[in-house]
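4.2 Preliminary Data

To establish feasibility before requesting continued support, the project team ran the inverse folding procedure on a target of 182 residues. The structure was first converted into the token representation described in Section 3, and no sequence information of any kind was made available to the design step. The complete token record follows.
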């Protein structure tokens, strides 16, 4: 597990250490300045496997990781975006899917086909990081359109919504889910 961390990241490192007491191996990539998600991955490139998952740290996901990886490995593409058919229900939908490919991703421009939302989990081949400039701010919002243009971004539909747990409202929604699941 590679954690890309920035401001106050040393607190996370102090708490988790090398991860052994949690049954995982944790490595760290520290940002001296904000690099965006893709920029942080570029900085951590030397720590990553040739194929790797990414997840946002403020989401609780219901993803069958082995099924997503199997799907990805069965196709010869640079990246995979997990998507959820959202219809603006939990947040604003931002993704158009056609067949097995993401055809459009935008948090600003919308069409009637924009019914999916990026789920917060992706798979990349390290080769995709060649498109990311070094030591510059570069988000996945910048990288995804390039992959889409090349026809290299697979869509993997997830059936259950995710929970954003990085805000007080998101935590309240997740707590309600937990109470109902008991």
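Position-by-position output of the design step:
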């Amino acid at each position: 597990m590679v954690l890309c961390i920035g401001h106050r990241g040393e607190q996370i490192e102090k708490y988790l250490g090398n991860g052994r007491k949690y049954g995982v191996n944790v490595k760290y990539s520290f940002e001296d300045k904000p690099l965006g998600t893709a920029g942080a991955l570029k900085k951590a490139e030397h720590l990553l496997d040739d194929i790797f998952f990414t997840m946002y740290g403020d989401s609780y996901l219901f993803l069958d990781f082995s099924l997503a990886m199997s799907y990805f490995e069965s196709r010869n593409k640079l990246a995979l975006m997990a998507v959820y058919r959202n219809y603006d229900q939990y947040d604003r939908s931002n993704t158009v899917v056609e067949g097995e490919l993401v055809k459009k991703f935008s948090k600003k421009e919308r069409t009637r086909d924009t019914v999916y939302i990026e789920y917060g989990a992706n798979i990349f081949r390290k080769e995709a990081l060649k498109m990311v400039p070094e030591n510059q701010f570069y988000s996945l919002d910048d990288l995804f359109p390039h992959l889409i243009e090349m026809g290299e971004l697979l869509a993997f539909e997830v059936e259950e919504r995710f929970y954003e747990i990085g805000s007080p409202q998101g935590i309240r929604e997740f707590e309600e889910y937990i109470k109902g699941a008991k």
